[in-house]
Amino acid sequence: MPTEKELQISPLVPDSILHNSRTLVNLQSLTASLFGVAAGILGLESYSGFLFYLAFSLLTTALFYFVRVAPASPFASSTPAQKTGLFDTSRYFHSPIAFWTGGLGNGLAGYILTWTLFYGLVRA
Amino acid sequence: MVQVPVQTIHRDPQLFYWILLPITLVMILTGVLRHYATVLMATAPKKLDQKTLREQRSLLHGINVRGNFHVLSKRSFNTRRDALTTEYESGAYLKDPERRGQAPPNPMTDPSSMDGMMGMMKNQMAMIVPNTLIMSWINAFFSGYVIMKLPFPLTIKFKSMLQAGVATKDMDPRWMSSISWYFLCIFGLQSVFNFLLGNDNAASQMAQQMGQMGPATGQMFGPGVDPDKQFVAEAENLAVIEHYSVLDSVEQRLLQGIKV
Predict the structure, then answer these.
(1) Residues sharing a CB contact under 8 Å with residue A49, sequence separation 6 or more, in sequence order
(2) Per the UniProt record, which residue ranges are transmembrane (chain A) (predicted)?
(3) B80: buried, middle or exposed (CB in 10 Å: 19+, 13-18, 0-12)?
(4) Is B149 helix (H, G, I), strand (E, B) or coil?
């Protein structure tokens, strides 16, 4: 976590951070609905359905990280001052916890909606 | 423990076309309508006269100086601080300086504050009216049908909520009636609206309720706030800042970054 002084030396623009997290939320809510369709067609019930959602939304976030965030984060940089850890998102997002787990809450309602809909259409 | 056999109910496939689809469509279209109604009804912010604008902007100036003091050199920060503190404490930027120290006007009687209240009222109405209409529509047309089975089990407490209008005592609470599909739509359609209308849409009631909970940023200059007190507080905030610059010891940081 960078200190206040480090943030002042290399500031993060709030607008860009907002845009980044919005993009992430858009992606997550859209994919959550699609996962709901998949879970409903597969006919998953109770725990297996929620585990399906957990696994796939984490997978989405991980893919987002490895495709979009990681290549541009200088964790392979040669200068030690800019070197960051492998799972560090501080260049684009405020808190890593919000980055990794924020999607779970964002998409859950949409997931349940489409899950119920397609479960009802296909199985019940 | 005896294993309870899974209840199966044979339902008419036409239920899908005549209940599920209409409710979902109406919910989506209402969301779109609400979004555009909010866009159309939004009043442009009222033009402020010069004195009010000066009062607000000079306060913002102080806040910005306080927030970004680290990019100023010590001398220019001190100059700004002295000037701002003097002006703030003497009340030079106030809208009407002769009213210093008096109690602020009652926000209920102040005509300038009625705008904000009207805006809030409009939002509330845009939320309440369609919701009431749709709920009574669903209750009038679709009550008493069991249309779907939830894919996850629920406790018996949800029975009264999910199976409103279905008077069957032993039915599994997983079976849901049309009114509970309506509730699911309220919560779950946000992602659809995100997709259709963009991210900062006004279609979802949920987002609007969240917005009302949070502190409004416009509150800073709202009615009932004494600008003189704000100025004095800001002058104090400026006075206690311990100044440093980001350029302090920049040469060492530069040399650290250079590899031979």
Answers:
(1) A39, A115, B151, B152
(2) 24-43, 50-67, 97-122
(3) middle
(4) strand
> Hey, is B96 helix, strand or coil?
coil
Give dist(CA A36, CA A61) in Å, integer: 17
Tell me whether residues A29 and B257 touch, CB distance under 8 A.
no
Helix or strand (DSSP H, E) at B53: helix B50-67
Give tens-digit pLDDT for B26-54. Answer: 888 888 888 888 888 777 777 778 888 88
Q: Is B189 on the interface with A (CB under 8 A)?
A: yes
Please report, rounded to a whole number, the percentage of residues in chain B having pLDDT higher than 90. Answer: 0
CB of A53 closer than 8 Å to CB of A108: yes
A22 interfaces chain B, CB cutoff of 8 Å: yes
**Alpha carbon distance B33, B26 (integer Å):** 10
Question: Which residues in chain A have their CB less than 8 angstroms from residue B184's CB?
Answer: 112-113, 116
Kind plus residue range of the DSSP H or E element containing A39:
helix A14-42
Q: Report the range out of A82-91, B79-88, B141-150 with the highest average pLDDT.
A: B79-88
**Which helix (H) or strand (E) element contains residue B148?**
strand B146-149
Specify burial of residue B84 (Cβ count, 10 A radius: 0-12, 13-18, 19+).
Answer: buried
Distance CA B222, CA B167 (A): 52
Q: What is the mean pLDDT of residues B182-193?
A: 82
* CA dist., res. B186 & res. B183, Å (int): 5
Q: Enter the tokens of residue B237.
A: 């905030």
Residue A9 sits at the chain B interface (C-beta within 8 Å): yes
Largest CA distance in chain B: 84
Cα-atom radius of gyration of chain B, to the nearest Å? 29
Classified as helix, coil or strand, B91 is: coil
Q: Say whether B146 sits in a helix, a strand or coil.
A: strand
> What is the crossing angle of helices A46-64 and A96-122, to 10°?
140
CB distance B225 to B104 below 8 Å: yes
Helix/strand/coil for B166 = coil
